[in-house]
Specification:
By secondary structure, the protein is of the alpha/beta class. The protein contains 7 helices and 7 strands. Strand 1, helix 3 and strand 2 form a beta-alpha-beta unit.
């Protein structure tokens, strides 16, 4: 696992939205002690590579994203399948952690609850979700790209399911579709979001733009 300082330096070089740096650090901390990770709905984000996880297997159901992730070697292994059928492809307790970043909101509520069950079955140590706080309307960018939102997940309901929940990306009023900042100038509002995340929204997930939900399965 990449050190915190090493990860910050890497992300600063890539000129990330500073709030996104805090998201990556929070995911890194959530994965502490996990050497094998199943990254569900991995898409084309290099998150697991940035974190330098020892072994990662990505699951992607959208063919163009699967091919791009394969071309860029973003995972140690890639599996092309429907994320609603994980139990057909993976064994119980096969990975230290199962991670679904910006995924569960693309499923219906019933399918999302089934995803939670499957991830907790496949993971030995931790089940981790990153998702908007509550329902965030979002449309497809293309007709078949699976980017539309069909459900929202409130901090309280995730806590009832046994997850520790922290707020990320600052106040939800600052962001819209795809977690993009709504106001201009962007550098100013990016700093406002970053400062708010540090000082306030982390402990107020119900008012944050996004939530990180972590369940320790070893307890």
């Amino acid at each position: 696992m990449r050190s915190r300082i090493g990860l910050i330096c890497l992300l600063l070089k890539k000129k990330h939205d500073p709030s996104q740096i805090l998201v990556k650090l929070a995911i890194r901390d959530a994965l502490e002690g996990c050497e094998s990770v199943l990254d569900i709905g991995c898409g084309t984000a290099p998150t697991m590579r940035e974190l330098a996880v020892t072994r990662t297997v990505g699951v992607e159901g959208y063919r163009p994203f699967f091919e791009q992730a394969q071309k860029e070697k973003l995972q140690d292994e890639l599996v092309e399948c429907d994320v609603r059928e994980l139990d057909k492809h993976f064994q119980p307790k096969q990975f230290d952690a199962c991670v679904a970043l910006d995924l569960i909101e693309h499923l219906t509520k019933a399918d999302g609850l089934e995803l939670i069950r499957s991830m907790e079955n496949i993971a030995k140590k931790r089940s981790i979700f990153f998702t908007p706080s509550g329902f965030l309307p979002q449309r497809n960018a293309a007709n078949d790209d699976l980017q539309a939102h069909f459900s929202g997940w409130e901090p309280e309901e995730m806590q009832k399911l046994g997850y520790k929940v922290i707020g990320l990306l600052g106040p939800k009023r600052l962001r819209g579709e795809y977690h993009m900042l709504k106001n201009r100038p962007l550098p100013f509002w990016a700093l406002v979001s970053f400062a708010s995340q540090l000082l306030w929204s982390k402990s107020h997930p119900e008012q944050a733009a996004a939530i990180l939900c972590v369940k320790d399965l070893g307890k």
